[in-house]
Design brief:
The chain is of the alpha/beta class. The chain has two domains: 178 residues, 3-Layer(aba) Sandwich (Rossmann fold); 64 residues, no CATH class. It is built from nine helices and eleven strands. A six-stranded mixed beta sheet has the order 7-8-9-3-10-11, sandwiched between helices. A three-stranded antiparallel beta sheet has the order 2-1-4, with no helix packed on it. The longest helix has 18 residues. The chain is globular and about 55 Å long. The chain starts with a strand and ends in a 31-residue tail after the last helix. 38% of the residues are buried.
């Protein structure tokens, strides 16, 4: 993103943001309510165009694309919604198969089902294909949403407040899942969050957004100990003892936590 601004009428929500996200890393964009995170998210996935500035995905500037061209670029993204956004009237299999039904219509039903079941098994969701969303735990719903996001083999996964509303143990499991998915599927993670503990666990890059501006960026520990007083106060106000948090990607990521269900082995 290069000097991106976004206004709605006379209200400027994003006031000039430049950020470069590195491939196959986890970048966390953190900020309080009203900071502009939702607007930034909508621009990242092409639902809103910036008032000015550029959003580059490879060689494509999303700020200048037509709707047809934008749809092509959107296929590079997978979206994991805050509360999974599963369709309550569809089974787990039907929810996860939805992107394939819409965008891979050349696939036979057998091929779709095989691909869905394989992905569910990889994420530890064994024999849950015929369950309804109402029959799933919070952690299972998150993983079904992730399975659906991975169906079109995206290069970039966007997570919208993935730990919101979860208890500390489940939040930690979701952090592990985010990083395990990055390593296993070689994706770039972009996480929109207000969870400081999660940020310190998973971020290789962090961007602190305040009033539509990035006021600090870098490794979370560098931000916590950096020169920006407002950033230090923001982190201190979270009440998180950052020095006691362990980094997910510094631990062994060979398997998901037992409570999430161990996945089958993956190929390259």
């Amino acid at each position: 993103m290069d000097d991106v601004k976004k206004s709605f009428g006379s209200t400027q929500v994003i006031r000039g943001i430049t950020m470069h996200l590195r491939r196959r890393e986890t970048a966390v964009i953190i900020g309080g309510s009203g900071a502009g995170k939702t607007t930034l998210l909508r621009m990242l996935i092409g639902l809103e165009k910036p008032t000015s500035g550029h959003i580059w995905v490879d060689t494509d500037d999303m700020a200048t694309l037509s709707e047809t061209e934008m749809n092509r670029v959107r296929h590079k993204f997978g979206m994991v919604f805050q509360y999974a956004a599963l369709l309550d009237s569809l089974t787990v299999l039907e929810n996860v198969a939805f992107p394939l039904r819409e965008h891979r219509r050349h696939m036979t039903n057998k091929e779709v089902v095989e691909r869905v079941v394989t992905m569910l098994n990889l994420l530890g969701l064994v024999n849950l294909e015929q369950r309804m969303p109402s029959e799933l735990s919070g952690g299972q719903r998150k993983r079904v949403g992730l399975a659906r996001a991975l169906m079109l083999e995206p290069q970039i996964l966007i997570y919208d407040e993935p730990t919101s509303g979860l208890d500390p143990i489940t939040s930690r499991m979701v952090d592990d899942l985010i990083e395990d998915t990055r390593e296993r599927f070689h994706v770039t993670n972009v996480v929109i969050s207000h969870d400081m503990a999660s940020t310190f666990r998973i971020a290789q890059q962090a961007f602190l957004l305040v009033n539509g501006l990035v006021i600090a960026e870098g490794h979370p520990e560098d931000i916590a100990n950096g020169p920006c007083e407002e950033a230090r106060k923001f982190i201190a106000a979270s009440g998180v003892a950052t020095e006691k948090l362990d980094r997910v990607f510094e631990t062994k990521l060979g398997a998901l936590p037992a409570a999430l269900g161990a996945p089958a082995a993956l190929g390259p």
